[in-house]
Amino acid sequence: MGGLAEHNCEVLLENTLKVSCMKIGVEEEPEIQAAVRVLLGGLGEDVNREGYKQNVNDIVEGALFPEAGLEDDKVGEAGGTGGIVIVRDLNLYSSCESCLLPFQVECHVGYVPSRQRVVGLSKLSRVADVFAKRLQDPQRMADEICLALQCSIEPTGVAVILECLHIHFPTLESTIVDPSQEGWKKVVVSSGSGVFENKEAGNDMWTEFFRLLKMKRLVADRIQKSISTGHWCPSQAPSISAIPSDMVSAVATILRTLGEDQLRKEVIGTPARFLNWLINFQTRDFKMKLDGFASKIWEPRKSDGDMKGNMKIHSELNLPLRSQCEHHLLPFYGVVHVGYFSAVGMTPIGKTILQSVVHFYGSKLQVQERLTKQIAETMAPLLGGDIIVVAEASHTCMLSRGVEKFGSSTVTIAVLGRFSTDPKARALFLESLPFTEL
Amino acid sequence: MGGLAEHNCEVLLENTLKVSCMKIGVEEEPEIQAAVRVLLGGLGEDVNREGYKQNVNDIVEGALFPEAGLEDDKVGEAGGTGGIVIVRDLNLYSSCESCLLPFQVECHVGYVPSRQRVVGLSKLSRVADVFAKRLQDPQRMADEICLALQCSIEPTGVAVILECLHIHFPTLESTIVDPSQEGWKKVVVSSGSGVFENKEAGNDMWTEFFRLLKMKRLVADRIQKSISTGHWCPSQAPSISAIPSDMVSAVATILRTLGEDQLRKEVIGTPARFLNWLINFQTRDFKMKLDGFASKIWEPRKSDGDMKGNMKIHSELNLPLRSQCEHHLLPFYGVVHVGYFSAVGMTPIGKTILQSVVHFYGSKLQVQERLTKQIAETMAPLLGGDIIVVAEASHTCMLSRGVEKFGSSTVTIAVLGRFSTDPKARALFLESLPFTEL
């Protein structure tokens, strides 16, 4: 927590920002305008509910309970003094200050009680949530949670570890070239105060904190390394000419409405980065590219229809999927499984081609139901007409916006031709599906 | 969904109950009164926020999006028609109508779109939440979610599966006798409408739903069996004389305030069952029982102090813990690990005795910090003064009350004597701790 001075406490605890509801007065092309309105609505829900308006002292005050420590004749640490108290595996989500996308946070908080009092456990979670529900950077969030708990509880020390996962949203070009590109960027950050101030390897408090977290995979070394990597957001700075300036102004207005200082150096490029990402899903001449690609490489296999007796089901499983939900402008990600009939002895269609189609339909504003149908309809004529497509995906709109259903996933299915009329064929394919961790 | 007739739809969708805030005008002994006030506060938060006051039509209306189905020249199911859409692994919690304790729910919802429209995915979660945030029985909850979705979306069919976990809160007597008594009661229930109406083995729609849930362990047979077990709540009916009638009236008032029909046959015994469970934590003569028990069986091992050179750490891991949070009157559960020095060659103290002490301090209103300290302080004189106690627990108050942090757990530690002054001894014990699934 090195850089944060003590006088920050009061600001942090009382930071009831004046949130004003300003209207966007900028003219954009209607489609983009509608999209930004949806986004503003989504973010606006947060403004009214949590985050910037919350006051940490209000949360903690009234939840500090007297709890006797050890009696004088005993040597040790327990109860209201000295024994560490940890709440681990708190699922949070936050929004990246650099690109506005939500990111997932696994949060672990520990503190060492003093002054013969303990804090209600749920308050550790609520305070962490206050700082998560803002535009954030992982290290800053860890520092803010740590400082706020230190100032409000006044314990012997506070330790915070955040494991953050940011979706790595590839550009269209990079996915076509390299479909296997990793989907996530992970950083682990920590912050400590009091007895946790010093994070060097020799600090027994940190060593015990790690042991009690059962994070054997996580060593102090790696945390230090993560901290030093600096900027973590995988979004790319756009070429300035690519983004119309009135759109940038519109997104800047959103940030101002949220109570953000738009001139803060971490945030100043955010509107452009967000729009760069958004515009990737508006590329209209890409359809033509795919058509050209298809006519050159794919040979429709009409002859297959005459050989039904010798057909077997070929499965192409776990094709990576990334897309963007058109209702909330938020990413969803997962896998697609494709099944089709293939004549015995024939070479199945290449995985690369199927992956390209998945990326093509993923790379626009979508709903998962439509995406699944489009993949099936595009591939069907090239595969003899009989096809089954199953998509499994996690939707970040199910994490944020007050729903907060961590770990949930959505499955959709499209069946054409024989897969629709023959339950046995469908069953045979569905039984071949792997267990998926999303 | 057999028993629910179509005319229930309107009632279910429009059920904006009149919730009045009535004051409890009953005189009880102050301690119990305070406890009931805390409970009312906790439940009251829910009344003002979600559950009884929510209207399913408000949630779904505006989230039905037109989505084209397959074109006329194609045979199959996809998009806005016929392809099943599933949202799986939604974590919910609900409150048992029989004993008022919260129970966990893993919810899986599927529907088959029709009329060329789909519903926003998060709405499936929100509708399920409306019916979870009431006093519930698993089968009734599944039927209500199913009926509400069928009536509001009007799809070809709806399928709902709920995996419910109810804490099995043992009585003091049963835990002392049998500390290994299983902590959870699990039931799986399902409900279907439209193409899912018939749950027999031959229904392809159910078969596919299961396959897409990847619930290979879950067969239709077992669901049918769970449904037929009837009453699932493990709370016990008390002997009438044991519960003061004014306390029963106080809890009945809480139910009325929530908008519940107190005369409904499932709820009529709830106040007595809840109080029976609460009173288990108020048994005051139990301390004496433990003291008598201890003086007979345990021999303080003072001689150990002279043999420090030949001592080794003995660990007793994973002692089951059940207790009740005094801030919210809600259960917490987990395991306790105890470490102490034992002279080489000496028989370690029996696991049964340690387990009895854990149960003794668990069987009252507690905070985890104090519980951990009390176990350490009670056992220390009998174990030569050097002891380390680590408690790991999940708190149901972290699930309910708006926090809803599923999967989080709390770790507390107490160290006495040598474990407090010797970091190496502490480290040796902490390294021996197993990975725990809570």
Could you describe the 3D structure shown?
The structure is a homodimer of 438-residue chains. Chain A has 438 residues and is α+β, with helices and mostly antiparallel strands. Chain A folds into two domains: 8-281, GTP cyclohydrolase I, C-terminal domain/NADPH-dependent 7-cyano-7-deazaguanine reductase, N-terminal domain (GTP Cyclohydrolase I, domain 2); 296-431, 2-Layer Sandwich (GTP Cyclohydrolase I, domain 2). Helix content of chain A is 36%, strand content 24%. Chain A has helices spanning 8-13, 30-49, 56-60, 121-132, 138-153, 172-177, 204-213, 220-228, 245-258, 270-279, 286-297, 351-362, 368-379, 418-421, 423-431; strands spanning 64-66, 76-77, 85-96, 102-112, 117-119, 135-136, 157-167, 184-194, 311-325, 330-343, 365-366, 387-395, 409-416. The first copy, chain A, has a five-stranded mixed beta sheet with strand order 6-3-4-7-8. In chain A, strands 11-9-10-12-13 form a five-stranded mixed beta sheet. Chain A has a two-stranded antiparallel ribbon with strand order 1-5. In chain A, helix 12 packs antiparallel against helix 13 (368-379). Chain A is elongated. The first copy, chain A, starts with 7 loop residues before the first helix and ends in a 7-residue tail after the last helix. The model of chain A is unreliable at 1-7, 14-30, 42-50, 175-181 and 295-307 (pLDDT under 50). Strand 2 of chain A pairs antiparallel with strand 13 of chain B, so a sheet runs across the interface.
